[in-house]
């Protein structure tokens, strides 16, 4: 208690030994290091390696992703976990990262650590992602798939019809039709597609 | 020690013998053309999906129609049937896809149900997509019209 008081008093007093220039500069440098470190650490949690570091992600969703066109295709463009599940913009990214603390809870208590548990929770997990993508107008899809760059003449007639009407006038967004593009779908009874 | 040397030399000799081709007669020219039984040929290239959507005429009335489009990654399991996303009774018209035929709604007692019955649920058991692959072996299959035409011709003669 006595020591705490000492430190508090030290913090409150103006500096006697160090110049204001030194203090400002060292504060600036420390800021760069901490801010950069924070962002670097945040980026590390965005890598595929980090996501599949836990076996529940490795053996369930990742295995399913591997069969899809978002994982392997003729032009070699790959969407990683974070490309679809974490927004690219900083504010939204940090918000999503805070939400993700729930996933740490799930990991600690093993809420989906067997295929059976994952299957049982599949609908709930899927619904959460559908709701998230619906709410942000399929932001993560649009990071790569731009509406303005779509050539309707190259699409098959049915796709062109849907994209030029419902998508064009913002009645619907990508996730309304394109569910289950990277993972298997849950029991779809009662879901309108 | 002596036994070990004996084993080693005999296995080496055997390996050399197998390599010499005496144990590798040529295979019947069936599906793996040009190779002997012991030889591994490089796998042939995977046949490409045809990208132009074109429905094909059935060769006989009961033939399950072939799938004229790519079905890569289609999920057909207990949870969901991607084919029925377009071909189901409710969606077919809007999707512009042919509806699954009424036989698919019949259970084993020929009672027509509201949904596709489990016995007909797994589409690719009967319906297959087409690729641009050459047939592996020659086939003298004739469509039913050809058979009728030929037999009619034969009758007249």
Give a description of the structure.
- The complex is a heterodimer of chains A (193) and B (157).
- With 193 residues, chain A is mostly helical.
- Chain A contains 12 helices and no strands.
- Among the domains of chain A are: 30 residues; 65 residues, no CATH class.
- The longest helix of chain A is centred in the first third of the chain and has 25 residues.
- The radius of gyration of chain A is 24 Å and the shape is elongated.
- Chain B has 157 residues and is mostly helical.
- Chain B has a domain of 106 residues: Flavocytochrome C3, Chain A (Flavocytochrome C3, Chain A, domain 2).
- Chain B is built from 4 helices and no strands.
- The model of chain B has no long low-confidence stretch (mean pLDDT 81).
- At the A-B interface, loops of A face loops of B.
- Chain B: Component of the periplasmic nitrate reductase NapAB complex composed of NapA and NapB.
DSSP summary, beta strand count of chain A: 0
What sort of overall outline of chain A do the alpha carbons produce when their principal axes are compared? elongated
SS summary, helix count of chain A: 12
Whole-angstrom Rg of chain B: 26 Å
Can you give the mean pLDDT of chain A? 90
Query: What is the quaternary state of this protein?
Result: heterodimer
Query: Which sheet architecture does the biggest sheet of chain B show?
Result: none
Q: How can the largest sheet of chain A be summarized? A: none
Separation, N- and C-terminal Cα atoms of chain A: 63 Å
Secondary-structure element order of chain B, N to C: HHHH
């Amino acid at each position: 208690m006595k020591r705490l008081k000492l430190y508090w008093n030290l913090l409150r007093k103006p500096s006697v030994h160090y110049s204001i220039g030194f203090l400002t500069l060292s504060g600036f440098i420390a800021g760069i290091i901490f801010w950069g470190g924070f962002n670097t650490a945040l980026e590390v949690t965005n890598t595929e390696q980090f996501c599949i570091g836990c076996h529940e992600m490795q053996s369930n969703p990742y295995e399913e992703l591997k069969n899809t066109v978002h994982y392997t295709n003729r032009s070699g463009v790959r969407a990683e976990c974070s490309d679809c599940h974490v927004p690219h913009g900083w504010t939204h990214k940090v918000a999503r990262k805070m939400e993700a603390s729930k996933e740490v809870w799930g990991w600690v208590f093993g809420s989906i650590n067997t295929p059976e548990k994952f299957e049982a929770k599949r609908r709930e997990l899927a619904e959460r992602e559908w709701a998230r993508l619906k709410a942000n107008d399929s932001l993560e899809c649009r990071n790569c798939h731009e509406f303005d760059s779509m050539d309707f003449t190259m699409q098959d007639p049915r796709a062109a019809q849907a994209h030029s009407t419902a998508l064009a006038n913002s009645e619907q967004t990508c996730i309304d039709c394109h569910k289950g593009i990277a993972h298997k779908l849950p029991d779809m009874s009662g879901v309108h597609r | 020690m002596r036994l070990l040397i004996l084993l080693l030399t005999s296995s080496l000799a055997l390996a050399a013998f197998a390599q010499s081709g005496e144990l590798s007669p040529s295979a019947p020219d069936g599906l793996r053309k040009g190779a002997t039984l012991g030889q591994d040929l490089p796998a042939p290239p995977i046949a490409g999906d045809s990208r132009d959507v074109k429905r094909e005429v059935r060769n006989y009335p009961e033939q399950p129609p072939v799938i004229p489009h790519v079905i890569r990654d289609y999920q057909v399991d207990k949870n969901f049937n991607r084919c029925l996303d377009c071909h189901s009774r409710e969606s077919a018209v809007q999707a512009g896809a042919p509806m699954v035929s009424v036989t698919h709604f019949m259970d084993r007692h020929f009672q027509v149900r509201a949904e596709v019955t489990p016995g007909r649920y797994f589409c690719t058991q009967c319906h297959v997509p087409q690729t641009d692959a050459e047939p592996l072996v020659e086939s003298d299959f004739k469509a039913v019209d050809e058979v009728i035409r030929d037999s009619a011709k034969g009758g007249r003669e």
